[in-house]
Amino acid sequence: VKGRTNLWTQGQVQQHFQIDVQEVEELFGHNDCQSDAKAPPTRGGKGRVSFRETKEVSILDPKRGLNVAIFLKQFKRSNQTLVDDIQRGSSESFGAEPLRDLLKLLPEKDEVKKLKAYRGDISKLSLADSFVYLLIQVPSYSLRIESLLLKQEFPAACEAMKHHFGILHSATKELMCCEELHAVLHLVLQAGN
Known about the structure:
Blueprint: H1 21-28, H2 51-54, H3 62-73, H4 79-88, H5 96-105, H6 109-117, H7 127-136, H8 141-177, H9 179-192
Helix pairs in contact: 3-5, 3-7, 4-7, 5-8
């Protein structure tokens, strides 16, 4: 601001700072696709992992990828083991609620196309993308997950049906044994004739 004292109008700078341009570029610069041999050494040489080594490939929609990653955190098993269980039809490691959640997280058709077209290193895929990539390799994966859910829910559904069938059976017995109902039905029959 002209006319008032501020940082820029106070005269000369008291100190001269040395800027380490190489370090600034290392920390904030955009890495091009160079070979690892040409990469500049990391600061301090203490085995810091460079940006290029931790870069993951993400194909899924970011929100879906995050939701799939959160879903996978509840299992203490590898992606391959989970996909193998789905392929074998083993529902013991899942439970009904996680299977319902997984059905909601299945990829869209365009995401499936992108994942099937991916030809890069599978180990560079993010956790969620890796799981979905392995999952879509399973034939009829959606139908298999629905079958696993049915397998998990079937015993509880059978128990509920047994209860309802018991109620229906006792109601039928009461109707068959009710003399008053029989008399009313005969009366209706005679009135109709």
